[in-house]
């Protein structure tokens, strides 16, 4: 069994072409945000993503589909305009997501428990797609057998998916799902081999791994464990552990889409910036001007704070993510560098692509530099062309995140810089970066650099392979050492 798993992982690492999806959610409520936070369907760049998912519609007790905001979605034609994006980009696939956190589990559970209601739900979903012009349906049931659900949800969800796949294959529609990431939740909610069989792809929500529900400060989406993660349970709350958990439970890597957040989660702390990971907190950070919810900030709000100055940015070499603090405010988030590392991780694991929650909290106005820096970093890392406003080819535009070369032997856990106006690291020609693309470190095969030409100079992004892997210059992914000429 172990040898089979290792072989599967090796083959997945070599399957570079499988990592080709950029799946993006759009939260329709962003239409109502104030000022520069307002983001409507008409603001979506149809070339940013390969698949875009409209969130959300609701489910009724009889298995029918509920439109959540008829004024926005019908009167103002948000659904029609959303699917109209395909007129500009015929390669784009559009899906609609049903559920979400606020929908809960109770209605889903009731419908899934009845054979007749399951069939009605599947037929209603297909009719909804046909009526509005969507290409697929995304099930965002959060979560089977949890939050008001029943123990039988796990099996009933699989039965529901089997019906979806049968009908949708006949009609040419996609069926996907947004799923919990952490192993404990996965075991409660999903028969993973069945999901792998019936879903076209699986959007793994590898974020919200820590937040104000925890007693101590933790990063929203760490790639690997921090220095304070010492128990088995703590070490499982990382992006890497979640993805490996899904694979070990029977998911094909090529079916998994790695979720990344265009937002951060923050805390109000007691002792200003002396607080580190694992310290106590008194609640969420101050709400931002656009998202207006304590404890969470969009990347557009974060980069504007960094531009205003006064923040200390720390790069965690172990977790491969940044965090920032100012006074009693502590915020863990993803920046272009950590997004590039996670995208390369998806490539190295042979995953099907990268999923983004969500479009409306990237820096879509380019107020901090590049337009949509996080989305364009994903595209650059996947060797896809930069879209409108992204001529810098994946430059950070916002903070540099205190970038480092990764967690090498003898390095400290964190690197800290105090910033006022963030700027990318410029490396003159003749140094590490002499051309665009990837360059492996001369002394450590687990470290590599992404070089981007911008304004006559090279921007150097330092990246690190997952533990135990080397960067393979023949295919530009991290690979097993035995397969790499180092």
From TrEMBL:
Residues 386-426 are annotated as: Disordered. Residues 430-486 form the Chitin-binding type-2 domain. InterPro entries: Chitin-bd_dom (IPR002557), Chitin-bd_dom_sf (IPR036508), Chitinase_II/V-like_cat (IPR011583), Chitinase_insertion_sf (IPR029070), GH (IPR017853), Glyco_hydro18_cat (IPR001223), Glyco_hydro_18_chit_AS (IPR001579), Glycosyl_Hydrlase_18 (IPR050314). Its EC number is 3.2.1.14. The keyword Repeat does not apply. CDD domains: GH18_chitolectin_chitotriosidase (cd02872). It catalyses: Random endo-hydrolysis of N-acetyl-beta-D-glucosaminide (1->4)-beta-linkages in chitin and chitodextrins. This is chitinase. It comes from Holotrichia oblita. The lineage of its organism: Eukaryota, Metazoa, Ecdysozoa, Arthropoda, Hexapoda.
């Amino acid at each position: 069994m172990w040898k089979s798993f290792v072989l599967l992982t090796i083959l997945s690492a070599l399957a570079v072409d499988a990592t080709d999806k950029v799946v993006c959610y759009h939260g329709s409520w962003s239409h109502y945000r104030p000022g520069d936070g307002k983001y409507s369907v008409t603001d979506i760049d149809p070339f940013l993503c390969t698949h875009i998912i409209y969130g959300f519609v609701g489910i009724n007790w009889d298995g029918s589909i509920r439109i959540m905001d008829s004024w926005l979605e019908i009167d103002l034609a948000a659904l029609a305009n959303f699917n109209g994006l395909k007129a500009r980009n015929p390669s784009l696939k559009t899906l609609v997501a049903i559920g979400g956190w606020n929908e809960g589990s109770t209605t889903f559970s009731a419908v899934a428990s009845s054979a007749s209601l399951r069939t009605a739900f599947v037929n209603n979903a297909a009719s909804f797609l046909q009526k509005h012009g969507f290409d697929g349906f995304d099930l965002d049931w959060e979560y089977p057998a949890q939050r008001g659900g029943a123990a039988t949800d796990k099996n009933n969800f699989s039965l529901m998916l089997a019906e979806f796949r049968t009908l949708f294959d006949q009609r040419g529609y996609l069926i996907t799902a947004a799923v919990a990431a952490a192993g404990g939740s996965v075991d409660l909610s999903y028969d993973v081999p069945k999901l792998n069989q019936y879903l076209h792809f699986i959007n793994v929500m590898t974020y919200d791994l820590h937040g104000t529900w925890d007693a101590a400060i933790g990063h929203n989406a760490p790639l690997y464990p921090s220095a304070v993660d010492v128990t088995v349970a703590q070490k499982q709350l990382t992006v890497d552990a979640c993805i490996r958990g899904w694979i070990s439970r029977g998911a094909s890597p090529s079916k998994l889409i790695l979720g990344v957040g265009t937002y951060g989660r923050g805390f109000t702390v007691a002792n200003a910036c002396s607080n580190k990971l694992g310290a106590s907190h008194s609640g969420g950070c101050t709400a931002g001007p656009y998202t207006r919810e304590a404890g969470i900030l969009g990347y557009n709000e974060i980069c504007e704070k960094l531009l205003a100055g006064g923040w200390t940015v720390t790069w965690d070499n172990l977790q491969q993510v940044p965090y920032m603090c100012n006074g009693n405010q502590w915020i863990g988030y993803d920046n272009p560098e950590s997004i590039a590392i996670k995208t390369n991780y998806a490539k190295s694991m042979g995953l099907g692509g990268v999923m983004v929650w969500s479009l409306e909290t990237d820096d879509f106005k380019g107020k901090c530099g590049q337009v949509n820096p996080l989305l364009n970093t994903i595209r650059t890392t996947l060797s896809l062309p930069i879209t409108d406003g992204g001529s810098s080819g994946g430059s950070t535009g916002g903070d540099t995140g205190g970038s480092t070369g990764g967690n090498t032997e003898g390095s400290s856990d964190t690197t800290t810089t105090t910033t006022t106006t963030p700027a990318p690291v410029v490396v003159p020609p003749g140094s590490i970066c002499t051309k665009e693309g990837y360059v492996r470190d001369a002394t450590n095969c687990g470290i590599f650099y992404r070089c981007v030409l911008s304004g006559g100079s090279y921007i150097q992004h330092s990246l690190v392979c997952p533990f135990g892997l080397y960067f393979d210059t023949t295919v530009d992914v991290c690979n097993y050492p035995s397969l790499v000429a180092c």
